[in-house]
Amino acid sequence: MASVHESLYFNPMMTNGVVHANVFGIKDWVTPYKISILALLYEMTASKISLPERRRLNKLILPLQQGPDLTLGQFLKTVEECCPQTAYAVKLRLHEIADGEMKDMEYFFSTLPTPFTAFDSEAYKTSVVGLFMRHMILAYNKLSFSQAYKLYKLLQHYYHSHYAKPTDGQMGLMVLIADDSDMDLTSTEDTIGDRMDKEEQDTPLHESELQGDNTESRGPLSQKQAEYFLARQAYLLKNDENKALKPAVLQEELNNMLKFNPDFAEAHYLNYLNSMRVQDIFLSAHSLLHYFDRLILSGNEGKSNGDEGYGRSLRYAALNLASLHCRFGHYQQADLALQEAIRIAQESNDHVCLQHCLSWLYTLERMKGSDSTVLMEDSVKMAAHFCLPYLASLGIQSLVQQGATQGKTAHKLMDALKDTDILHWKHSLSELIEISLTQTTSIWRMYGKSTMALQQAQLLLNMSSLEPVNFGVHQNNTEAFAVALCHLAELHAEQGLFSAASEIFHHLREQFPPHTQHAKLWMLCDLKIQFDKHMNERKYHLAEPLVKAISALDKTEGLYRYHRRVGVSYPYPLCCPSNRAFNNRKAQVLSALNRSTEAYNILQRLQVHSEKTRCTEMIIRVMLSTAELHWESSGFSTALPVLLQALALARQHHLQSLVSETALHLAVTQLMLGVPEQALSVLHEAMEPVLAHGAVIDKGRAMLLAARCQMAVAGFGPNRQGHPDVQLALLAVGSLNEAAAYFSRLNCKERLRDVHYLQAQLYRSLGQTLESNKSAMLFRLLDQELQSPAPLASMRL
Question: Can you give the pTM of this predicted structure?
């Protein structure tokens, strides 16, 4: 906090580059708003203020100087949040000037303690505050009498409009604003009529829709004020979109800015970013082309680089256009724009642009489903050769992601990510550090290591960002944070902590409102958790409507969820929620509704699609679902080769969670084929990873299946012969008790009914009548509550 005070008042060299670029970012003439800032500085020097309040005011001065003019109400409210006493003193000071005479304004400027006239002034001569006060005093002293009189009238209107009705004095204000150009020290030649002509020549799109009839026309901002506004909004759009202006409001501000300067290239670029937020392909492409057109016509590139600047703008314009089409899924148009950018970059021998083109080329090929490994490796090598760490790291991260889907071992992927992390910290690439941690979280989840995934997600959320925390941003609300929070919510939901998951989604809803670009991530994650919860509770009437909502966000996800059998589907994303996990819900509901033929057709379509996109995880899940459909027709021997193929594929790609789930399916099949000993052996191999990293529903299913196998081996089946094995029976009792505890956490009443039924049978066979009657009573109560026939235990996992 002390550095803020020093940078504003003492040593200007301590301010960062952004501050220096905007030190003179004030209007070139004195305005009532600037007089209000001077009154604030006056009261900060004259009155006694506590140290915390002074620190808050010091942090406030720079945004007030560089930002657009505020109304008196907005200004006083902002100051009052930092120090109510100072806000009241500023209000009294402005009241003395506005309700007095013109000599009172003259007296205020003459008695203003500046670093040039007062030895006890806190401001240093070359500090931000000192330069601001010097500029304002010089500007005021150069005013003629008529200009000073107009300034005084503007100040009176500025003060009294805070207390008057909104419609009072508007005509008078417009007259004063029309004559305000006389007070400009730089004497710009652009008149109001010229500005209106420019407005008619180039009116931004959608202006009539976004500006109502009652929108008040604002005056022009200075060049530095406009640059500050654009830089602030661009920073917020990148790091904390929730704190940026709403899309419609920002569009209105940009349209108002372009009225007075249609050739302002940076405003067109921010308009492009704002249009991307609302997925407006037409306006975003229009604004992007306008940006590069204005950039070329303004000569900003050509002044420093001659003809090279012109060509540089053209090739980067084509590259940005390719990325735009790539984001909207227009792969053919993106490929054409990318080839154009490559051609121009080769003609200009621009290796940096060529590297960017190569990065987008392998990204485009990967989106189209082609193998882009060779292009990625070439991109990494060339980026390292030309010392482009950002592109080299992105290439390595893409290779790691592709390697994870192709079955690379975990230690090789983690070693590659470790090397990139060294590169990130060396060059302070905070954005890539966040992506790397999120990618590590996703990889651990894909491999079924939930504990490691939880640790990596917590590490990201508790890490201090390396980005300069400007404009009051305390957390970079980027896609990486959204993905990490979604993983965290899913991990909590898997353990039955739905209230904790709900709190995480509440935080996500606040940080990423529905209109923001990353809101789709938590929306899809929330719907998946709700769907799985209803399916585990067998509330099909609540789960079925969610399929449509899921399909609206991800069509393939909605299709798959509709087929799966009850209680078998769990959220295991491929890499991260933003990478289209290709899980879908439609076939899940169809199977639950006994529409097996339709579910089988959907599964075949999904398998073809998964093989085309090389989505190994989805291929395995389709095989598991196909085996479940064979169970429906008692085709256990037919399901066995399908499960063995799925098990081999899961082990080949080191997908531990799918290996465990496939083993559970295999154990059920072997149990129904009459080999419970072999089923129990397979189950023991899968039990450890399930209990260590599995979801609560997985643990319950595994323990229930273990109890059924133990009862079958012990001789408690319907065709039992001889004396049962009491030792195994006691183990089965413990397994059933554990399964009941797991299902109770998830409120799976139908599965609890199955557990109590088996408990009653087991206790009766052991001669424990009291426990048997208790379990039978619990079974009866649940059966009456559910009022639905229990499905055959052999037909489900």
Answer: 0.72
